Every structure is written in structure tokens, then in C-alpha cells.
Fold:
Amino acid sequence: SYELTQPLSVSVALGQTARFICGGNNIGTKNVHWYRQKPGQAPLLIIYRDSHRPSRIPERISGSNSGNTATLTISGVQAGDEADYYCQVWDRGVIFGGGTKLTVL
Amino acid sequence: QVQLQESGPGLVNPSETLSLRCNVSGDSMSTDYWSWIRQPAGMELQWIGRVSVNEGPSYNPSLRSRVTLSLDTSANNFSLRLRSVTAADSAVYYCARGGGSGGIDSWGQGTLITVSS
Structure:
């Protein structure tokens, strides 16, 4: 079955840029979606189909996808960005990565 | 704007069947996929399956033998039945819109299910 690999954690200083990696075999051929989940809340879709933002999501959040790696980038990190971030694809079912926890220093 | 709300028992005895319903407002449910996702405490998201008007249900292979999903567009809801539950099925269960190529764009608040006697 298809697997998505995400680092367990990322730490970034306030105002800097956070990058989240999602690895998968030829993931560049798939549509990748990204979710943010804060403690006690449901996940929120922040990027769909590799690089598209839902209307509520600010421009400082972006995504890309090529080869074996998809990347979520958050520029100008704020304290409110602390959360778990999950990537997701469809491969004979919905597949989630294990999630990456963002800590803002 | 679509809203989803899960309802369920909270506590289920081991070996019994878990039944959950998701009430949907703001969407006719005649298009789109409708999914169930769960998350054990402190762990990652796990997709359970999806239903839609236009296709038969799709299930996570690891749960297929125990799960049945159904859709009732006249009542604007969809349901999950998970048979022979164990403690490993304890989790927050979310209902959501999506599960195809476009991502999962709307989620319920989640309902905590504990399997224990």
C-alpha cells in the first residue's frame, strides 16, 4: 500500500519560514492536500491539489509537489501556526501522512 | 456553507457494533464524497471510508471486513457501522465532505468514542 512519510517535528523561529516535507513514491504524479490541526480541533484544509489555497487561507501558506517530495511552506511564521500538519493523497483510498508538529520558537 | 455534526453513543462495549451518524446542512449531498476519518488519542488520522450518490462505498482495506457506510440524501445524513469493536477502535471519529481528488474541505467537530466494558 502507498505510504507518505513526514518528519515528526519542525521548529522555526517566530517570523521565519517553515517547510514541511511529505515523501512518497512518485508523489509528484498525485494530487497532494495539506491540513492543519490544532489541539482539540478538527483538521482544516489549507492546501489542495498541490498548491491551491481555499479562500480563507492567507498567501503566506503555499505548496509544491514534484518527484518524490511534496512541500508545504509557511512564511512569516506566527505563534498561531503551532499545530500538526498532515499531507494526504488518494491511492486506492485516502492516505494520510503521519503528521509533522510545528513548534514556534 | 456546509456544516457537519456527528452523533453517537460515546461508550461502546467490546465486541459490539459502533453506530455513528453525520447530519449535514448546507449541502444537498447529491454530489461530492462523504467520508469518515478517525484519530486515536495522540495519533495520526486514519481514513475509514467514503460514500457518494454516484459510486458504491470505498473502504480502508484494513477495516473493510468490519465497516458499512450508508448515505441517506432524503434525510441529509450518512452513517457508519463498525462491527466487533475492540479497545483499538477507541478514537475521535470525524465525518467530513470529500475524499476524492479535491481534498477534504469540511469536517465535523468530531465525537469521542471509547470502547470499554
The radius of gyration of chain A is 13 Å.
